[in-house]
Task: inverse folding
């Protein structure tokens, strides 16, 4: 994971986006999650735009979403 990113996004051959995300709170609690977005999901284009685009087989760091 790159400095300033909250995880990694990877696109599979069928265009599905997998997000492996990590969060930490000020008091030291940590959490991880894995989310998938298929091209048919309503949030797909928004997620893809936030990441800055992806191609099948490519992985990129995920920047934080605005609060």
Result:
């Amino acid at each position: 994971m790159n400095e300033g990113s909250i995880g990694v996004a990877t696109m599979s051959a069928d265009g599905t986006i997998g997000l492996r995300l990590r969060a930490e709170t000020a008091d030291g609690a940590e959490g991880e999650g894995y989310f998938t977005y298929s091209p048919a999901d309503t949030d797909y284009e928004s997620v893809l735009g936030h990441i800055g685009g992806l191609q099948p087989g490519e992985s990129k760091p995920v920047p934080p979403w605005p609060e």
